[in-house]
Q: What sequence folds into this?
């Protein structure tokens, strides 16, 4: 006997509906892009939707078919935003490529995805000229500029974006199709092996945007002005280009600029209420504020993720600028939202210190995401805030396979995705990342949490950045080595840091040595590259 069917309308969840909603009900809300020093492009959701429709028609006229991959090498700007909708809206797949990856990785990714057309900023024309002979699947190149700004290029048949869309009228009925159709793709940065393609769907994208917008997560509304400082090519700028039209928030896009003065100027002049980015972005902003004494009056919330937000950063945002930090954890494979550190009444009722200790964690699961932690034998561990183990997630916006590797088993028998992170989950439901599996420090068979040690090191007044890595030790297998960068104009002595750590961390977690240097190597996604550090300092404790 078949179950009784509900009698509600069956509307597939379509990405195009987000922008059409914004055009209709928040048509005058602005999208502002910093296009160059002192230059801003301003238009609104109604203008943007009209141009996305023209783009959709232009793509169809080029012969783009549903399922075709269309690559972008682009910064955070209004044309890239139009591509998010124009490409996915016709059933093609928007493939956002991280232009900061190594050339070999970019070549690999474009070949693997077999992109048919490439949309690129003028800055990346030389790179693509070099790679073009290796990319036989590419049938056309579109440079994100006006016709007069077109660079001289050997890219065959290259055209400006404005010429491409210029010949088409803005009337277009978006097609409606199966909501499980692929909409966009993003490759992980390949810190372990070849980059892997995560392939999102219309359904996963819309559900993820709905969940992320909620008060229990980002808490966004039409009253917000949002500046994503995560890149649109990295997990879709944490989905803000989808969430903002959904709620009618103003969108402020910083182009290719991510320096402290630019950030501060945009926040102040565009009255930004909500900004997002990895910790290194905020470190740059703080440096600028230190130098100028500037304030952040309009800003209410800052979303920090990608790597752990240090307590000192959270405290400074709250105490000096009245800004609430929302710590988030996620990955390309989770669209990216997994957990957010919004409080609950139970947590709010705790004494200040206990409350802070919970809210510095990466956060609590949102509706739609399930979490579990397991020991090395695969047994589930209790959510007691102490037991730490491999973190697994499950939900409708979590990857089940990688593009082109559909046959490789990725999930466990119950459909859980292995995140590669190590975490604890406390009785309040808050998850805390203690490490990445590949960064774990195992000393005498016991795990040391590099994240905890880094956090305390960064609370030293003269320390700007800190990274802890495991290096070879003849007796203990591995011991922690702490690498620090002093704040500008300050010097730090290793002894003073070790003294600062005393009493803050367990004695056997104490780093065996502290190295002071001017900067830390970063990955293409702006995180500290521990791989590079481990290579460099592998024998540091032996050689001494
Ligand atoms: P990659 O860093 O390899 O490019 P992602 O950008 O998808 O990949 O990053 C996902 C990883 O980033 C997570 O698995 C986790 O290790 C780390 N991460 C993300 N957010 C946080 C956070 N708030 N605290 C600590 N680590 C985080």
A:
């Amino acid at each position: 006997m078949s179950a009784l069917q509900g009698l509600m309308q069956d509307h597939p969840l379509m990405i195009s509906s987000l922008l059409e909603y914004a055009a209709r009900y928040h048509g005058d809300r602005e999208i502002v892009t910093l296009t160059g020093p002192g230059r801003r492009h301003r238009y609104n959701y109604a203008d943007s939707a009209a141009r996305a429709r023209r783009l959709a028609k232009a793509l169809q006229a080029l012969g783009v078919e549903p399922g075709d991959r269309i690559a972008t090498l682009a910064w955070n700007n209004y044309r890239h935003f139009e591509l998010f909708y124009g490409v996915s809206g016709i059933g093609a797949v928007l493939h956002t490529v991280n232009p900061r990856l190594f050339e070999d990785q970019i070549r690999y990714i474009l070949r693997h995805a077999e992109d048919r057309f490439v949309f690129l900023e003028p800055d990346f024309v030389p790179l693509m000229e070099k790679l073009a002979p290796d990319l036989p699947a590419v049938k056309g190149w579109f440079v994100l500029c006006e016709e007069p700004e077109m660079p001289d290029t050997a890219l065959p048949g290259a055209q400006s974006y404005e010429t491409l869309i210029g010949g088409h009228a803005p009337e277009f009925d978006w097609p409606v199709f199966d909501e499980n159709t692929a909409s966009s793709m993003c490759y992980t940065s390949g810190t372990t092996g070849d980059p892997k393609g995560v392939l999102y769907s219309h359904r996963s994208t819309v559900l993820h945007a709905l969940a992320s917008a909620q008060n229990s997560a980002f808490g966004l509304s039409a009253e917000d002005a949002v500046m994503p400082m995560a890149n649109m090519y990295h997990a879709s700028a944490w989905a803000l280009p989808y969430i903002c039209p959904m709620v009618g928030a103003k969108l402020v896009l910083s182009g290719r600029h991510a320096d402290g003065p630019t950030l501060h100027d945009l926040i102040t002049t565009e009255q930004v209420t909500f900004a997002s980015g990895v910790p290194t972005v905020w470190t740059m902003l703080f440096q600028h504020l230190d130098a100028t004494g500037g304030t952040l009056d309009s800003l209410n919330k800052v979303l920090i993720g990608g790597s752990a937000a240090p307590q000192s950063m959270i405290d400074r945002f709250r105490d000096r600028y009245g800004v609430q930090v929302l710590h988030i954890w996620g990955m390309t494979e989770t669209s990216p939202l997994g957990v957010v550190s919004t409080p609950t009444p139970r947590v709010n009722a705790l004494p200040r210190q206990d409350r802070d200790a919970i809210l510095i964690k990466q956060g609590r699961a949102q509706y739609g995401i399930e979490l579990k932690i397991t020991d090395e034998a695969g047994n589930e561990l209790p959510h007691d805030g102490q037991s730490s183990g491999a973190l697994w997630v499950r939900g409708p916006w979590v990857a089940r396979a990688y593009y082109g590797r559909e046959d490789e088993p990725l999930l466990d028998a119950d459909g859980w995705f292995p995140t590669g992170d190590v975490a604890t989950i406390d009785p309040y439901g808050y998850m805390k990342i203690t490490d990445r599996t590949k960064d774990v420090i195992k000393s005498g068979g016991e795990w040391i949490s590099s994240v905890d040690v880094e956090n305390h090191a960064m609370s030293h007044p003269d320390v700007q950045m800190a990274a802890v890595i495991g290096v070879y030790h003849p007796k203990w297998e591995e011991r922690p080595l702490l690498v620090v960068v002093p704040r500008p104009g300050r010097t730090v002595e290793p002894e003073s840091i070790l003294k600062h750590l005393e009493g803050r961390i367990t004695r056997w977690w104490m780093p065996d040595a502290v190295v002071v240097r001017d900067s830390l190597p970063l990955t293409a996604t702006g995180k500290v590259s521990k791989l590079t550090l481990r290579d460099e300092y592998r024998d540091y404790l032996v050689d001494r």
The pocket of adenosine-5'-diphosphate is lined by residues 188-189, 191, 305-308, 327-329, 331-332, 362, 419-421, 433, 436, 525, 527 (CB under 6 Å).
